[in-house]
Each structure stands twice: as C-alpha cells, then as structure tokens.
Amino acid sequence: MACVALNRLPPRYIRHDVDHSFYLTERERAENEAAIREAVSFAFEFVQAKVAMRARR
How many Å apart are CA 41 and CA 1, to the nearest integer? Predict the structure, then answer.
C-alpha cells in the first residue's frame, strides 16, 4: 500500500522537520497534506480491490 501511495506523489527530499517548515509555504504544505491524504486513500482502495479480486478466483 505504501508503494502505491508513494508512486502517486511528487518526490520530496526532506531530511528533517525543519527542512519541511523552512522550504514550503503554508499553502504548499496544505496542498502536500491533501495530496498525501488522497494518495493514501487511493492506495487503500486499490489494495482492497486487488484483494477482493483475488478472493473471487
């Protein structure tokens, strides 16, 4: 699930919380959080669908 979610997000190279705070505006931070929520939701549903498809075989 993590791999599916990460594949849907742009790469960010952040080593520490201070990097995240320093280099992103509040708007960018909010957009990133929304994108992360969407990617994780998609990944969860994707994995659930795959499991359900395998169960039908």
Answer: 10
Structure tokens at 1: 């699930």
Number of residues assigned to the chain: 57
How many CB atoms neighbour CB 46 within 10 A? 14
pTM of the entire predicted model: 0.77
Rg (CA), the chain: 15
Residue recorded with tokens 């190279």: 13
Give pLDDT < 50 ranges for the chain. Answer: none
- Give residue 19's pLDDT: 67
Q: Which helix (H) or strand (E) holds 48?
A: helix 26-56
Instruction: Sketch the domain layout of the chain as residue ranges.
Output: 2-56
